TrEMBL record:
<feature type="transmembrane region" description="Helical">
    <location>
        <begin position="443"/>
        <end position="461"/>
    </location>
</feature>
<protein>
    <recommendedName>
        <fullName>Polysaccharide biosynthesis protein C-terminal domain-containing protein</fullName>
    </recommendedName>
</protein>
<keyword id="KW-1003">Cell membrane</keyword>
<feature type="transmembrane region" description="Helical">
    <location>
        <begin position="9"/>
        <end position="31"/>
    </location>
</feature>
<feature type="transmembrane region" description="Helical">
    <location>
        <begin position="146"/>
        <end position="166"/>
    </location>
</feature>
<feature type="transmembrane region" description="Helical">
    <location>
        <begin position="330"/>
        <end position="348"/>
    </location>
</feature>
<keyword id="KW-0472">Membrane</keyword>
<feature type="transmembrane region" description="Helical">
    <location>
        <begin position="421"/>
        <end position="437"/>
    </location>
</feature>
<feature type="transmembrane region" description="Helical">
    <location>
        <begin position="172"/>
        <end position="193"/>
    </location>
</feature>
<feature type="transmembrane region" description="Helical">
    <location>
        <begin position="294"/>
        <end position="318"/>
    </location>
</feature>
<feature type="transmembrane region" description="Helical">
    <location>
        <begin position="250"/>
        <end position="273"/>
    </location>
</feature>
<feature type="transmembrane region" description="Helical">
    <location>
        <begin position="391"/>
        <end position="409"/>
    </location>
</feature>
<feature type="transmembrane region" description="Helical">
    <location>
        <begin position="79"/>
        <end position="101"/>
    </location>
</feature>
<feature type="transmembrane region" description="Helical">
    <location>
        <begin position="214"/>
        <end position="238"/>
    </location>
</feature>
<feature type="transmembrane region" description="Helical">
    <location>
        <begin position="360"/>
        <end position="385"/>
    </location>
</feature>
<dbReference type="InterPro" id="IPR050833">
    <property type="entry name" value="Poly_Biosynth_Transport"/>
</dbReference>
<feature type="transmembrane region" description="Helical">
    <location>
        <begin position="113"/>
        <end position="134"/>
    </location>
</feature>
């Protein structure tokens, strides 16, 4: 089972890395071709679409991967029957409420992009639930293919043939809808309908109870999904209203940069949710605990080192892409540094969701949202709108990362070495000071980078990390012996 986990993780990580590189290339092409202001506008549209389609699915993107192993043990085919009936209905609802929501989300661009907004919402619903089903079935090759089609092939083809930003959004919307629709028809005909036919006698008896169970789990996580969408989306909408288009462009680039870097790391979370759910369904609590403990140990150190490189190379990358010297504000460095905590949340919310039917990940998001709102209430009395928005995001992301780590430790009963914890805290403080130094004197970048590498080596050379690498190495040797 461990070999299968490592194999799936490797394939998903490669796929997510390709998506990240193509996303970076897409940002470069759009910025060079249409300007950084257009990139900011696209980010606002994307965040508005995400804000609508995620709640419309009522948490099914989380509930299906988590609960399919449990439901398949007693009522095989029930998840397929529920999806076949509910997904087309949810897509139809989005056509009804989408035009009204576009006015609130897009503001000045609503009239021009209203129906394209609706089409993108429907496309994301079909793509999201298709991906969730393949995750739940642990068919990661299929999941990887539909991700590559939707997030690499479609956007790169459309940006290549587009002459302006409106043309790009139009071509992308229709092509994405066509691809997502065909994928959903394929899943329905090849996987859902045959499974339903085989188990129809039992499925129709338990349909009501299983539907309530599946949607109740998703509904309990819905406040967290909405809260996360608010944290990601609301600042972009506010900046679109109060800031210049250039500022919105820089802000969107920071957020996209964080997302691109986090994709390979988040690939672990993609595999973890169904894998840990399957282990817990089979009462393998000790195995699940070891996996989560190894992740916390390894990624806590890796994240600390990566944050130094993130801070050191962001400004040159931005200037290279835009082909001009960009002004990075003081608070932008704090925003960029806090992005690491957002990566932690996206990684660790999967083990949190797998551990219990209670919505602990929702608590993480709601508390983080409240910390951001509290920060905004305090800062708004003496700071500008822009500074308040950035500090609020910083507070929210910081809370999301810290709380997600806390709940993983609590729910899986993992023992933490106080010495390692103090070293990590000291290193994160060093990164924060580094952000301040870079913002005032960019010539300190090389010094900061050198110190970061030395500190990173110091962090990694400890017995706990060596145990992880020795475990993987010994497993690989045992696998080769078995093959022989």
């Amino acid at each position: 089972m461990l070999y299968k986990l490592i194999k799936n993780l490797g394939l998903v990580a490669i796929t997510q890395a390709i998506i990240g590189l193509s996303g970076f290339l897409l940002v470069v092409l759009i910025t060079r071709k249409f300007g950084i202001e257009s990139n900011g506008m696209l980010y606002v549209i994307k965040r508005g679409v995400d804000f609508l389609w995620v709640p419309l699915l009522i948490g099914l993107t989380v509930s299906v991967p988590r609960n399919k192993p449990f439901l398949d043990k007693k009522d095989k085919g029930s998840v397929e029957f529920i999806l076949l009936l509910s997904v087309p209905l949810l897509a139809a609802i989005s056509f009804i409420i989408g035009p009204f929501m576009s006015k609130m989300m897009l503001g000045q661009w609503s009239a021009e992009y209203k129906w394209l907004f609706v089409i993108l919402v429907v496309s994301n619903i079909l793509q999201g639930i298709s991906y969730a089903y393949f995750r739940a079935s642990m068919k990661y090759n299929h999941a990887n293919v539909i991700q590559l089609i939707g997030f690499v092939f479609v956007p790169l083809v459309t940006v290549w043939f587009s002459g302006n930003i409106l043309e790009y959004v139009t071509m992308y919307s229709y092509l994405f809808l066509s691809v997502s629709g065909l994928i959903w028809l394929y899943i329905s005909s090849v996987y859902l309908l045959p499974e339903i036919r085989k188990n129809f006698a039992n499925v129709k008896k338990t349909f009501a109870g299983n539907t309530v169970f599946l949607f109740r789990y998703g509904f309990n996580r819905l406040p967290g999904l909405i809260g996360a969408s608010v944290i990601y989306t609301f600042p972009a909408l506010l900046m679109n209203r109060f800031a210049s288009q250039a500022d919105v462009g820089v802000f969107s680039f920071i957020m996209q940069f964080i997302s691109i870097l986090s994709l390979p790391i988040n690939s672990l979370g993609i595999v973890l949710l169904p894998h840990l759910s399957a282990r817990l369904a089979n009462q393998d609590h000790a195995g699940a605990q070891k996996i989560v403990a190894a992740i916390l140990s390894l990624f806590g150190r890796a994240g600390a080192v990566c944050s130094v490189f993130l801070l050191a190379f962001f400004h040159p990358i931005l200037s290279l892409i835009t082909n001009q010297e960009m002004n990075i504000a003081f608070l932008d460095w704090f925003l960029l540094g806090s992005g690491l905590m957002l990566v932690y949340y996206n990684l660790l919310r999967n083990p949190i969701d797998a551990s219990s039917s209670k919505a602990y990940s929702t608590f993480v998001v709601i508390y983080s949202l409240l910390s951001g709102l509290g920060t905004a209430a305090v800062c708004l009395t003496f700071l500008s709108y822009m500074a308040t928005i950035k500090l609020s995001i910083f507070a929210s992301f910081l809370s999301m990362g810290i709380l997600s780590q806390y709940f993983c430790v609590k729910l899986y009963r993992i023992k933490i070495d106080p010495n390692n914890l103090m070293r990590l805290i000291a290193f994160y403080l060093f990164v924060l000071v580094g952000a301040i130094l870079i913002s005032y004197n960019y010539g300190l970048m090389l010094c900061l980078l050198f110190i970061g590498i030395m500190a990173g080596v110091w962090i990694f050379v400890d017995a706990e990390v060596k145990k992880i690498f020795l475990l993987v190495k010994s497993f690989g040797q045992n696998k080769r012996l078995l093959i022989k």
